[in-house]
Amino acid sequence: MTALTLAPSSRAETEKRTAFALSACSAVASDACVPALRHFVVHCVQRLGLPDDLRDAAELVASELITNSVLHSGSHSVAVLVSTEGRRLIISVRDRGAWRTRTDPRHSQDDDGVVCGRGLGLVRALADCLAVATGPTGTVVKAFLCIGPPAPVSSVS
Question: Rounded CA gap, 90 and 129, in Å?
């Protein structure tokens, strides 16, 4: 696994949570990389000092996007990029596989009781925006999660 972290230049910027932060990690696409990359995302969110509910949402989003890449892309590797921009946390998952359009219906009677096939629906429910870009060099899926309003500043009288 390869990791790269670029962080804000000052602690004050990190505490404001409005500065740009960027961390990336890549791994060989396998079942074993899913928990490793998921833990990487959780670690990034914790280092940014973001709330627990956002950490939990980011963990689920990352898990679903990474799993989709491992299971469906045919790529030999998968990379995760965690960044912030303004009041949004962005989780990007990139693979080098080929996009395959599904020909079977998403859910049929045969799918009753099956716990797979709902990942992107969960991601859409948790993210403010989901963007998919695909081309001859692979696919990038970006999930944008709202960090929330800044904490109120208390003044001492």
Answer: 10
